From TrEMBL:
Pfam families: Coatamer_beta_C, Coatomer_b_Cpla. It comes from the Eukaryota. It is found in: Cytoplasmic vesicle, COPI-coated vesicle membrane; Golgi apparatus membrane. GO terms for cellular component: COPI vesicle coat; Golgi membrane. Residues 148-272 form the Coatomer beta subunit appendage platform domain. This is Coatomer subunit beta. It is a peripheral membrane protein. Its main location: membrane. It comes from Neobodo designis. Residues 8-143 form the Coatomer beta subunit C-terminal domain. Keywords: Cytoplasm, Cytoplasmic vesicle, ER-Golgi transport, Golgi apparatus, Membrane, Protein transport, Repeat, Transport.
Amino acid sequence: VIMGDVAQPMTFTQLSRGKQALFEFEATADDVQSALANAEEKPSDFVASLSRVVQLSGFSDPIYAEATIHVHQFDIAIDFYAVNQTDQQLNNVTVELGTTGDLKVCERPQSYCMPPGAALALRLNIKVCSTEKGVVFGSILYDTEVQDACCVILNEVTVDIMEYIRKGHCTPSAFRELWTSFEWENKICVPPCDVNPREFISKLGDATHLTPIEPLGDDDDYLSALLYARSTFGEDVLANVSMERTENGKLEAVVRVRAKTQGIALGLGDKIESIPKALRK
């Protein structure tokens, strides 16, 4: 083994590098540009993680709890954080979660002991089986020195269906075949709004990730478009939009969403119904 200067930094080449580095010293000396890139991205990543923090209990509850939600392709990771705000020890502290929709909790709940002022950090995993809006609910059970079976009810966490909808490409012939084969349809009547057809399609794409399969026309009074998107589970999402400007200058639209499953059709329908409210702001 050849030893260099005592002050010379050591290089750990087997540890992760670049954006996946866990510690500052994991990047090698030859990766200066990547290290600088990481330094610029860390503040934005930190701010993004703060936007995913959900408060689960109140500040006056015996146990304060919050969670950071990380949505992946086929599962949801919940970084759970709880603090004992009482002046007594809490025994048999158990976090029990339940779900609605096509979500399944992977781990069995375990019991913990929390002294006064102690904090508890857990990572809980939930499996996602299909593209559907879901809700995660639960409670914290614990025992005290004077009372057994105490409970703190946690706030619900809604899993947005748009976490699993992506933009996609589809030919007109394939669109027609899928349109006739899908049995679930959700028809949404958009109330009159003061916007041009192309702007409405743009707002629709921002809210639902649906994109036109063909170029849009130039008519400002009438427009019909076919839109397509695809879920991370490989499910196709279709939409037919018909828009017409009324005599008072307002734009009326009818959006028909078709999908193989009911959850996608209803979930996207809720997103489309929120577009006129956003346009009025």
